[in-house]
Amino acid sequence: MNVKKGNQRLRKRFGDRVRVREEEDRIVVSGRLDSWEDIVEACSMCVCKKGNKHVVNDIVLEGRDPKPMRLPAERDSALEGERPDVLIIGGGISGASIARELTKWKLSVLLVEKEADLAVQASGRNDGEVHPGVDLKKGSLKQHYVLLGNRMYDRVCRELDVPFKRCGQYVGFRGWWNYPLVRLYAWNKKYVCGVKDTQVIGRKRLREKEPQMNPDFQFALYNESAGCVCPYGLTIAYGENAAANGAKISLNTAVLSMEVQDGRIRSVLTNRGRVWPRIVVNAAGTFAEDIAAMAQDRFYSIHPRRGTNSILDKQAAYLTGAIVSFKTVKKEQGHTKGGGILHTVDDNLLVGPNAVETYEKEDFSTEQASIDAVFQKQIQTVGKLSQRDIITYFTGVRAATFEEDFIIEKGRRTKNLIHCAGIQSPGLTTAPAVALYVEQLVVEELGQEREVEKNPRFNPIRKGIPRLRELPKEVRDRLIRENPDYGVIVCRCEEISKGEILDALHSLVPVATVDGIKKRLRPGMGRCQGGFCMPLVAKIISEEEHISLSEVRKAQKGSVITYGRTK
Amino acid sequence: MEAYEVIVIGGGPAGLAAALAAHKAGSRVLVIEREERLGGILKQCIHDGFGLVRFGEKLSGPEYAERFIDEVLELGIDVLTSSFVTELKKTGAGFLVSVVNRHGVTDYQAGALVLATGCRERTARQVLIHGTRPAGIFTAGTAQHFTNLLGQLPTRRCVILGSGDIGLIMARRLTLEGASVLGVYEAKPEPSGLTRNLVQCLEDFDIPLYLSHTVTRVFGEERLTAVEVAQVDERIKPVPGTEHIIECDGLILSVGLIPENEVAGQLGVPMDAAAKGPVCDNRFMTQVPGVFSCGNALHVNDLVDYVSESGEMAGRYAAAYAADGTDSGEHIAFKTDDSFLYLVPQQLRLEDRDKKGVLYFRSRNARRNAVFTMSINGKTAYTRKYGQLKPPEMERLEIDFGKYPIQKGDELRFEIKEVMG
What we know:
Chain B: Residues 4-298 form the FAD/NAD(P)-binding domain. The complex is a heterodimer. Chain A is of the alpha+beta class. Chain A contains 14 helices and 26 strands. By secondary structure, chain B is an alpha/beta fold. Chain B has helices at 13-24, 52-55, 61-74, 140-149, 165-176, 195-202, 262-266, 304-324; strands at 2-9, 29-32, 48-50, 59-60, 78-80, 84-90, 95-101, 104-115, 119-121, 130-131, 137-139, 157-161, 180-186, 209-211, 213-219, 226-231, 244-247, 250-253, 257-259, 291-293, 331-336, 340-344, 347-349, 356-363, 367-376, 379-389, 395-400, 412-418. In chain B, a hairpin with a 6-residue loop joins strand 15 and strand 16 (226-231).
């Protein structure tokens, strides 16, 4: 990069408070600023498109102390002295899919996740869209992997027994005068960028397919390969399949520090003991930069970006059967297409997300303003959209780099390390393809020491918990006769039986909490939001785990539901 | 396939009363209840005050339910518990009801259906509470389930949002269990619960009630640690600068009830947006002939006595429908204005214009010296004076339509008017 010009630009905008320097493998921006937005702006100004150096943010945010990473309360030596071939840090979609692909080899794989379940942060808090990649620039890693990943979804979801629907995506446009420009854009996407399913469809066909969309849309960009999946369902499925094939998954386990010697990670300290891995995969989401720093290989920075989604009652699901949004031709601000409306695999609607820069990596709180902003926008996509149909909402935090692209490569200074970082949208879509590439990197690296053999017992098939409500009557009847607990309905909104809950408690990555059950089966995700079933689910957990009701938790340690017997 | 003349869905107070009435009218009846025991939500309402209108006695919820359950069992009415209706379908002769329970999936045939599915509580998300997502946020009914059915204390120190009856009852209940109830916060300028509950549950226990206040935010990562409350303006928007933080480990919500009509939706039963239950005629039959609605599924009642009453009527008429199955389909739709929150039923069957009918309504606003008026073609026909009307208190009245010359095509209009002076 041209450091001199960069510093001139920074000086013009921020005076002498910030400056940039170039190092062998990174671009470092340093100084002091008192607003996070300014820091994001300063770092973004230093992004260099040529070469492969990433921006590292060393600017001090004055007057505010970002909260330290939330750590699990557990302190024990459960993992002390373990020597896995591969240590994967992070149990999101990236870590879980990488773990599963690595079990194809005779390698011991240990995945650590600091939260009480898999997919608690970004992978549990996104819209579940399987992107066609129509909005991505050619040449980016995102674009490369989105095309590969999208194509893999049918097979992966079949193997892992996860519901997946290719519902298609429509982006509406208002004025006819945009038509030539959009046609050109679509042609480019289809023939130059390789998004082969890109089409422009006319008003009449759009009305037939999506009758509730704004009648002012004159035409739409259509991609039939777009789909939707339950993002945490897929992550858990990957994790369970990895576990079935021999990977060890350790929840409530955070990496605290690393011992690095001569450019190699020697050992990794966790809250559950010190482990000695041959190689480490950094799939730590918003904390990937912190892990990179521990490994003395920090050559990129993460600037977290919040987004809030709302879930609407099934009664509103008729508003669209696909993924719909709209676009104006004038350039939009920010790094997201501004959200949309998505018909989920579970037949709810999801509306959002928005995008707000933040320095807090774990602030998942929601604000009414975010929801208002999204609805104000999306009501232009579908006029009948109403906040009255909201049953819940949630906030996720994206792990964006300043280059707004993924970092999937071997460590630059530290050898036995592989980064899978900067994974934001479309990271769910890309995960299956990225996992294959990381698998290749790991096997290559470990193969330099000694040959890595295939695991002949690898079984790619995972059998999920039967979804009784979706089965034909006769099959459901037969299953209930075999296991009468399948006939005891616990959650009335989503029709979940006691048998299914017991299956989840006995699964390969069991999480015996109310949220753990909710994520695996959906009791508490319906319109009553657990009002009726939560005490029943808590009771089943207490009976099955032989603990008292006051020991049953919502999620992590400390999240107790009751305080013991009444008088 | 087993066939019944009347199948009642829901074994709470409405369904039990419907089953008894249908049985006494000569029908073969089946009651389907999704929980393990009959009685519905009354099972967890261990406070008293039930049955004053019906029995002239102060009973607890379980005692009230027991009277009906005993009779159902004595009469040998068929009951399925722990049984969940997954599908309702119209067939040529009546209805197909698919039920899931420990024995499998079973289909039943019914001549008429009574939907007595009760109501559910509005959730924290439906009143747009923001902040983190810790444990410790309960609807009042869920807190009541933990306290009264599972014997577990859901909170030691809590704030209650909403002054609905269950919230008030829980304020007292939790206080008696040793928890501190720091206050009841109500966004509206008037309380939502019954006066007797305000007195017996709050005043008697020195629990403060803050009107025009709401909870604006919750805090805590694992368990709730605090809530932020603020004063609201007349549009229920928080007034900036009035926020303050209250440390607590529980937030109990009593912010309204919603009739549950998801099974009714499967039959395409048209709904009344105001009452949030099916549009019914004076026999409590919905606009799908042969399908009846009653209790809290029809509209949210304030007293269980009226739940039983509508259940009885629905059951009796369902039996009559199952016996002869005719439906002239001719109705006079009641016209109401916005002086009502709602009026139930919404129609009079033309053939019943010489009969007595029961009406339930709630006034939209609190009023003193109001007059309930029925006019026929613009001419006042029936009036009834009320010293006061309040939205939280449902009113019930009986009109003898036979007293008035009602003809096909007439306009029946209902209004609540103020009386001057």
